[in-house]
Specification:
Layout lengths: L3 H12 L3 H9 L3 H14 L3 H21 L6
C-alpha cells in the first residue's frame, strides 16, 4: 500500500513542472537536495526563488514544445 507521502511526492513530480528533476539530471545531483534548496531559499528570501522556479518552468516548457515541431512547421 502506498504511503501518503509517496502520493504527495508523485503528485508534485507529475504536476509541478519537473524543474527540480531536470536540474538534478543535468547537474548530477539528487532531486531532493535541489527541492530542499528551493524551499530553504524561499523561506530565507521571502519567496523570491519562486519567481526563478516559475521562470525555469516556463523556459523548459517552451523548449519542450519547440523540440516537438519540425523546422518546416514554422
Amino acid at each position: 500500500m502506498e504511503r501518503v507521502t509517496d502520493k504527495i511526492q508523485n503528485f508534485f513530480e507529475t504536476y509541478a513542472f519537473g524543474v527540480c528533476t531536470q536540474l538534478g539530471d543535468k547537474l548530477g545531483m539528487a532531486t531532493s537536495s535541489i527541492r530542499l534548496f528551493f524551499i530553504y531559499a524561499s523561506f530565507i528570501t521571502f519567496g523570491s526563488p519562486v519567481i526563478i522556479y516559475l521562470s525555469l518552468a516556463f523556459i523548459m516548457n517552451m523548449r519542450k514544445h519547440l523540440r516537438r515541431r519540425a523546422i518546416w512547421d514554422y
